[in-house]
Amino acid sequence: MHPCRARIVFPALMWATTVWADEAPLVDLALEDLARLEVATVSRKAQKLSETSAAVTVLTAEDIRRSGARSVPEALREVPGVSVTQIGAGRWAVGVRGYAGRFSNKLLVLIDGRSVYSPLFSGVFWEALDVMLEDVERIEVVRGPGASLWGANAVNGVINIVTRKATASRGGLLSMRLDNQGHPAVAVRQGVELGGAGALRVFAKGNELAESRSASGESGVDGNRGWLAGFRMDSAGSGTNAWMVQGNTYRRSSRENLQTSAQAGLPLLLPLGADLEGSSLVGRYTWGLAGGEASLQGYVDTQRIEAKNYGTGEVRTADLDFQHRLAPMGAHELMWGLGSRFVQTEIHLSTPALVVSPSGRKFNVASAFVQDEITLQPRLWKLTLGGRFEHSTMSRLEPQPNARLMWTPTDADSVWANWSRAARTPSVGEIDTQMFAGLHQTGNPRMPVVAMVSRPGPNWAPRAERLDALELGYRRGFGNGSFEAVLFHHDYTHLTSISLDPGGVVLPGVAGLVPAGVVPLQYLNRGNVGSARSTGLELGLDLPVTENLRLQASYTLMDIRAGRSSDPVTQASGEALEEASPHYWANLHGLLSLGRGREVDLMVRRVGAIGLGHVPAYTSVDLRYGWRVSRSFEFAVVGVNLFDPLHQEYAPDFVPSQPAYQPRQGFVQGMWRF
Q1: 288, 326 in Cβ contact below 8 A?
Q2: How many Å apart are CA 649 and CA 612, to the nearest integer?
Q3: What is the pLDDT of residues 376-429, one digit of tens each?
């Protein structure tokens, strides 16, 4: 063991000498019983998982701990239908039911109901998204559209990260981690009582992520480091007449290499460093209203990114959301709500390869939703009808309806069928950006090279992308385990894509023949000209084999077909879309309790090939050994990618970065509670 690691780990082991002798059996430490596990993201209210008519997975705090995950994307690897591939240090391609990428624009990510979806490019800055996993209560993952309740951009799925209430995290916690490359991570939290008013939790976290490798195994490809700090206050009450206030601030530095070509055709790496920072403040109040329950949530949020030598971008958001769940009226349970969001963006660039006009925008989003859960036959048939109407000054009015039918023939079995419509609002980057897309060799001696420039189409009236989704699912609970199978078909129209400008090759400002030595332009017009369909199968299993052994497995099979086009550029974009995600991926997690606080987790992942970038299929094996040394101290050793010294998981898509390969890794972690 490295001397530095020994100085951290061994004193902790000597200090924590009281053995955890009365631990609960493994079956009580994994997922709660299906009939009792609650989820709130599907219907914007707490309801039993067994009663939800949607494909939903809940990762509990225990699931996250046993997985050895160091980040939210790593924890999501075990969820069926969720594709998680690592692009580099802190950079991820996360997608639900396909359309994964560095900036997956059809996935809505929430933290305690606050959207972290950026309107600059329609996606999530995963390299900036950080949470204190020790205080995460659960992660709810809804596969399939959630737009009828959560609004535009909840197209393929919704991920809601739910943190613990301050009243449930009293006392102190210190977590320390060190990997085999010497990169540290430290997190500290303190919870205090506020008399009879409630409780307060304050926390801080700092870490440095392991670097990726080049194809030859060399380091220096990328890096990511930063810190996070915040607080959360909760009232002593629960349900009605309860309040919550939380805030956080963060700063991260990320670096990577841009890969381009020199004039002689030799590869050229250009360093790209980015500083990402932001802060948010959220408040929520819940109270009884007209025999039901109402809640009002508001938040303000700022995000800023500075890419050295390239420019800066900033987003400021103010959001207000109201919802009211009425008391049941016979067979009907109604819920309705209103929402308003104001967004201001500023982009200032210092590179001629990218032009944004206008540099600043202000836009508003107004929305209203209603949902009715109708009990057609008690304990047997339930019908849910609802819809959301949303208008953005960046797009048009988008109705997003939803219909769900659920059949529960027994207490253990449920079958559902859904139809949903969802929309994705165009981003500021899509509407306002003109970008150099590369050089194209024509084979014409008079014009051997043409510069390709992507721009908004001259006559483009931006509208939202649209999805019509069908889903058929079956869920069965048995004892403390469950099985789920879901079939889905998604039909996408009005996708934002590019096409050749009908004016052909041009040289602005010059009439007649193209002068020698001058590179002419070929514009690629952006517009709602794309379409696609995807079909897939998702399987999930949670099986308690014995009192001390549990198996969790998932398998996803998916196929994406883009609409054909006579335009060669639109056709090529569709083919790239088809090859941007693996056609299958599978996970197997074995959880074994050895007694006296000792536990072993074996995780095996198999991911199919990705055609875009020619990324081959790979298998990764991770192993975790944990020891609850005492009631106040836990210790874990984790090995990642044990039997493969180096592999690539995803090729750069949005940013032309140097391809990053993930090496074999290991880390030790200790956690003290006091």
Answers
A1: no
A2: 11
A3: 999 999 999 999 999 888 878 888 999 999 999 998 999 999 999 999 988 998
Residues 69 and 393: their CA atoms lie apart, in Å, by 40
For residue 201, give both structure tokens: 């939790």
Q: Which of 467, 622, 455 is nearest to 532 (CA)?
A: 467
DSSP H or E segment with residue 570: helix 568-578
- The rounded distance, in Å, linking the Cα atoms of 538 and 585 is 10
Q: Are 550 and 543 in contact (CB under 8 A)?
A: yes
Which pair of tokens denotes residue 106? 């059809």
Tell me how far apart the alpha carbons of residues 231 and 135 are, in angstroms, rounded to a whole number: 11
Cβ(29)–Cβ(61) under 8 Å? Answer: no
Rounded to 5, what percent of the chain is helix, strand, coil?
Answer: 10, 60, 35
Question: Which tens digits make up the pLDDT trace of 459-476?
Answer: 899 999 999 999 999 999
Quote the number of domains for the chain. Answer: 1
> In the structure, what pLDDT confidence band is assigned to residue 261 with cuts at 50, 70 and 90?
low
The sign of the dihedral angle between the CA atoms of 130, 133, 135, 140 is: positive
Going from the C-alpha of 448 to that of each of 443, 445, 452, 504, 509, the distances in angstroms are 6, 5, 13, 15, 20
User: How is residue 162 written in tokens?
Assistant: 């739910």
Largest Cα–Cα distance of the chain, in whole Å? 87
Instruction: Kindly report the backbone phi and psi dihedral angles of residue 461, in degrees, each rounded to the nearest multiple of 5, phi listed first.
Output: -105, 95
Q: 61: burial class by Cβ within 10 Å (0-12, 13-18, 19+)? A: middle
The residue count for the chain: 674
Find the CATH number of the domain harbouring 534: 2.40.170.20
Domain membership of residue 235 as a residue range: 3-673
Per the CB < 8 A criterion, the answer to whether 564 and 572 are in contact is no
Please give the model's pTM, rounded to 2 decimal places. 0.89
Task: Name the E strands within 393-441.
Answer: 397-407, 413-424, 433-441
- How far apart CA 640 and CA 183 sit, in angstroms, is 15
Q: Is 642 left (phi over 0), alpha (psi -120 to 50) or beta?
A: alpha
